[in-house]
Amino acid sequence: MRIRRRRRVAGAVMVAAAVILPLSVSAPAEAGSLDDVFAKVLVAKVKGENVKKHLDALQAIATANGGNRAAGTPGYNASRDYVAKKLRAAGYKVTLDPINFVESWSENTPPVLAQTSPTPKTYTPGTDFVTFEPSPAGDVTAQVQGVDLVLPPTPTPTSTSGCETSDFNGFVAGRIALIQRGTCPFATKVLNAGRAGASGIIIFNEGQPGRTDPFPLNIGEWRAGIPMVFSSFAVGNELATAPGATVRLKVDSNLVLGTNHNVIAESRHGNPGNVVMIGAHLDSVPEGPGINDNGSGTAAILETALQMRHFPVKNKMRFAFWAAEEIGLLGSDQYVAKLSQAEQDKIRLYLNFDMVASPNYAYKLYDGDDSDATGAPAGPPGSAQIEKQLERFFDRRNLGHVGTDFDGRSDYGPFIAVGIPSGGIFTGAEGLKTPAEAALFGGTAGVAYDVCYHLACDTITNVNLTALDVNSDAIADSAARYAFNTRDIPVNALAPSARVAPKATVGSGAR
């Protein structure tokens, strides 16, 4: 493990505050300013060896609880309690924020989808349509209404049907939403339809070769509270082109929900109207202990919080340890959904740290300005500034870095969806390291960044300690700077009508 030697700085925080705070509250972010001084202090205090101790504790918890820390298991509860105890002892205001997840789901009888008018017709379960797991039970007969459909379909997937709340402008509450598969996750479409007042949901395949038939799929989403099915393109096209088509949609299912908790820790000091939020998901997959994914992010932000507990912060610091990320970003999604508009607007920025110690790592910074021009567009205004702030840290150490897309696979998704500037660090998952990255960071080209991603071998031996140490310092650096200075981050100005449901990705990403 590469641990840089640092000056002992216990007590230096309060001394620096006493000398500098009266003089520098309004100082710009430059060498010698308040945020610069405290960043140097915090980076010196957040030591890789102490971050590693938290990983050892999470490994011990997994080992004692069936080999994992997944949502709904004793391993997750023990992880939650470990983090909460540490933060309470450090003086934070700690809240265990309840969230729901699907504990079990089953169907009692086959689903029903039948056109009752203008041309009565019954469709065949398993061939023409399937139930979306975990659809709630329901039996509804209503007119269908198409939502931003692209018919005939384009040669390649392009449909954004149901991806934005504005797609449902003019939707008549109580109708069954007819939505086309496309470029955003099914879960996004379901959430938007539920919020628009749909009584049921039919999503049909988009229509290109290979995208015509239905197939069984667990989308991890049930909160619309209405029955939902996935049909063939032929069924969807038929219903879309039948004037005033009315259908009966029935799902006979058993849906049992469980409860987990996010751990939310707030500083006692700082402006409550200007919140800096830092998050990492706490759960693992059932297949393993999840020490890189995402014990690494958890441990790094936990140690950062512990070491900045005495900082006389100017902005309210809020550290979040998310539940049930691995089954659809449920912890962060439900947290953001529960916030009022006023509470959302108090969050000046969100930093996300998911997998920061991959064994075949690359230093990947979320592409806030879309300068890479790939995948998702730029993040909300302010995201570019966050990316630049992280870049400056790596540049000061002469360390390479590359961009990574906001692809919706981690807990920044719900924050971006409501216009909150976001950013963070990621060291790679199941993707293969490129030759250019191997030249820049070392490691092996053509091999996954984390060969143990979502596997039982994601243990304490699966983390790269150099990456863990460097990224922990980067997290500390940004946390300290934003604790005192958010001047470069614009206030969330996204109009409510433009907000979209979080583009959660379940498993490998269902679209």
How would you characterize this protein structure?
The chain has helices spanning 12-24, 34-45, 48-64, 74-89, 186-195, 233-241, 291-307, 330-338, 341-346, 383-396, 413-417, 435-441, 465-484; strands at residues 93-117, 121-122, 129-131, 138-147, 176-180, 200-204, 228-231, 246-266, 271-281, 315-322, 347-353, 364-366, 402-404, 422-426. Strands 1, 2, 3, 4, 5, 6, 7, 8, 9, 10, 11, 12, 13 and 14 form a 14-stranded mixed sheet that branches. Residues 1-31 and 495-509 have low confidence and may be disordered. It contains 13 helices and 14 strands. It has 511 residues and is α/β, with parallel strands linked by helices. Helix 3 crosses helix 13.
| pLDDT < 50 stretches | 1-31, 495-509
What sort of overall outline do the alpha carbons produce when their principal axes are compared? elongated
Beta fraction: 15-25%
Structural class: alpha/beta
The count of β-strands is 14
> Sheet bearing the most strands, described?
14 strands, mixed
Percent range for helical residues? 25-40%
SSE series: HHHHEEEEEHEEHEEHEHHEEHEHEHH
Taking the alpha carbons of the first and last residues, their distance comes to: 41 Å
The count of helical stretches stands at: 13
Query: What number is the mean pLDDT?
Result: 91
Radius of gyration: 24 Å
